[in-house]
Write a sequence for this structure.
């Protein structure tokens, strides 16, 4: 049976207002009365109507995070970082995926707003800066892992060019000169800054950039498998000795196909990824990669949103976080050959 506040008040012999104050922990109620009401609530297994409460208080006590792909491990890590903080602050978290589609991004945002989300955390590469500026007039939001020029938008973003530069510099230090770049989506800023890091490392070491060593992908595991087929179709003398991949998932797709075709990593070709998703440290050989601190970025994004909900608005990027090169087993030192 679903009991109402009126039922609780009658059973406890108090007013409806008193019961409401106990449930919402607001207003003065004597300790004796509070204990009595709480006992009745427990006895009658009272479940508050959250929708009604949110309509009254104009607060739902939930946050919505929208990511490109729920199944992608690094978005799962970022989401866990967000959840760690929202739970501490008494908020529930609703997760949805926009599938790298601009229309779906807008639809998921409107769905969250219609459900009275108190705030949004957006990990949406397709959404325009103009649209974000327009939306934040209606709901508190934080943008994560997307380059934003405006200082009026709360954001958590790391400059990723240096991480990519270090990855390619490491390959060069290991003696590699013919290094391919396994690219993600060309219209995504993060991919392009990783490519710039790749190019700048080559330039600083007087290694000519070769456009034929750009392998096309879209950040997915499957596109890494397709890139391996492109690699195999190259003439032996044109094949790179090493590959820098714009994502771990693409690197892992490449590595699985390599294993199936008896192409040895790192003996035949070396590879470095970007993200440091958990499986990268478990596979054989373990993947050398650039760690993108998604868990900490999620923590920072959630704290930034909590500050906005508390009216203590901060708009700055968290600059203390940085990418880090994690050296494992997937790169061969060919200087010794």
């Amino acid at each position: 049976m679903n009991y109402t506040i009126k039922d609780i008040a009658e059973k406890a012999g108090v007013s409806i207002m008193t019961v409401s104050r106990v449930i919402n922990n607001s207003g003065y109620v004597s300790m004796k009365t509070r204990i009595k009401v709480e006992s009745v609530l427990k006895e009658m297994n009272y479940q508050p109507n959250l929708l009604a409460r949110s309509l009254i208080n104009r607060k739902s006590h939930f946050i919505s995070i929208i990511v490109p792909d729920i199944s992608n491990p690094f978005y799962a890590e970022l989401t866990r970082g967000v959840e760690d903080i929202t739970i501490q602050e008494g908020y529930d978290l609703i997760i949805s995926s926009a599938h790298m589609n601009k229309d779906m991004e807008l639809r998921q945002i409107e769905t969250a707003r219609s459900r009275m989300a108190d705030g949004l955390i957006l990990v949406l590469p397709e959404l325009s800066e103009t649209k974000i500026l327009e939306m934040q007039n209606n709901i508190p939001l934080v943008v994560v892992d997307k380059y934003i020029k405006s200082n009026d938008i709360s954001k958590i973003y790391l400059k990723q060019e240096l991480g990519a530069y270090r990855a390619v510099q490491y390959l060069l230090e290991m003696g590699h000169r013919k290094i391919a770049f396994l690219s993600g989506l060309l219209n995504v800023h993060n991919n392009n800054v990783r490519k710039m890091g790749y190019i700048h490392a080559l330039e600083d070491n007087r290694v000519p950039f070769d456009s034929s060593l750009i392998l096309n992908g879209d950040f997915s595991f499957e596109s890494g498998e397709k890139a391996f087929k492109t690699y195999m179709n190259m003439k032996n003398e044109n094949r790179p000795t090493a590959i820098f991949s714009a994502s771990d998932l693409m690197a892992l797709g490449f590595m699985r196909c390599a294993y199936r075709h008896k192409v040895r990593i790192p003996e035949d070709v070396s590879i470095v990824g970007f993200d440091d998703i958990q499986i990268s440290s478990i596979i054989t050989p373990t993947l050398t990669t650039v760690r993108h601190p998604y868990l900490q970025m999620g923590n920072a994004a959630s704290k930034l949103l909590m500050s906005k909900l508390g009216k203590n608005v901060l708009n700055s990027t968290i600059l203390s976080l940085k990418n880090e090169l994690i050296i494992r087993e997937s790169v061969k030192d060919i200087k010794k050959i």
In short: The mean pLDDT is 89. The longest strand covers residues 62-67. The radius of gyration is 26 Å.
